[in-house]
Amino acid sequence: EKAGFDHFMLKEIYEQPKAYRDTMLGRIAEDGKSVNLKELTMTADYVKSIRKVHIVACGTAYHAGMVGKTVIESLARIPVETDVASEYRYRSPIITPDTLVIVVSQSGETADTLAALREAQRNGARVLAITNVVGSSVAREADDVLVTWAGPEIAVASTKAYTSQLIAFYLFGLHLATILGTKDEATVTGLIAAMNELPEQVESILENAPVLKQVAESISHHKSLFFIGRGVDYAVAQEGSLKLKEISYIHSEAYAAGELKHGTLALIEDGIPVIALVTQEELYEKTLSNIKEVKARGAHVFGLANAGSEAEVGKSVDELFAIPKTLPLLAPALSVVPLQLISYYASLALGHDVDKPRNLAKSVTVE
Ligand code: F6R
After folding, report:
1. Which residues pair with 125 in a beta bridge?
2. Could you write out the DSSP letters of every residue in 184-222?
3. Mutate to test the pocket of ligand 1, among 7, 82, 86, 110 (most ligand atoms within 8 A of CB)
4. Contact 295, 316 (CB under 8 A)
5. C-alpha of residue 360 to centroid of ligand 1, in Å
6. Is this complex's ipTM strictly greater than 0.85?
7. Is the minimum distance from the CB of 240 to ligand 1 under 6 angstroms?
8. Which one, of 304, 314, 175, lies nearest residue 233 by Cα?
């Protein structure tokens, strides 16, 4: 049932191009000019009444929600807050009937996420669920559901569910933008065209897996490392760091690149690996100057950057892995893939149980 792969995690990483295609299937108009989310029951008038969005989730789904915040804010210009469900519930969140609460859950059974959904509804808010399990509790109780068609995810470490959640956010962001008129037709068409290219671009990243195996093996000798980035690169850095901790048990921290100098830079010492995400063109210069800060303290920097930016980024890093060029908002759907592979190969190199990491369960139904 692993279809020739050694582990479910690797199989699921390789299933991502299909998961992207299946999650987009039937949801994009033939002419590529609009999205079509027929399953949503919320009306256009309702969409126009939304004043704020709360995205609530746990773990990897929360990291997808961090990207979702940027997607919705930039496409629909509605203010978004993203929270971890176990915090949201207990901080008396200000939920009003004009708040759209989006819960994100692969399993649809995570106790804290389900409780957040109920709390939102109790306060008169509508809830949209992004979930991978059609008949799950979250799917049954939400007012609207966007299913991610990633297929069953068996490995404890989430991969294809996360990236399908990103696709769902892109689709929903475009849906809002179309109703609200916040983006012109050319921008919408451009985003859709770029989304259609993502599956093949992931395939090309997967073809380069052997290079990432080497990176993983070198990292596996270290006790601790850092992931840095700005904007959505920071959100992806957090997901990369969680994945690595979860299955390789190597300590790591994700940092907003500009925050390092406010304390954490003290931890950078000779030889420490730093994985720097550099996909946001308008932030290149800023991130490159943060890379210089860690290099000056002896860090070994592995850069993930857009193809075509090698000349600019290459000289600032020790090693560079190029990611196919896409629009800045869509970069997370590509840049996370090498990070998933690095975690996988690091876990393998250390001889851990990749699919069933210690202390963790696939579905967390306790609070
Ligand atoms: C990490 C991971 C977890 C889940 C989290 C939420 O790889 O899988 O962090 O993302 O437990 O689970 P769901 O999405 O089922 O609510």
Report:
1. none
2. -HHHHHHHHHHHHHHHHHHHHHHHTHHHHHHHHHHHTT-
3. 110
4. yes
5. 10
6. yes
7. no
8. 304
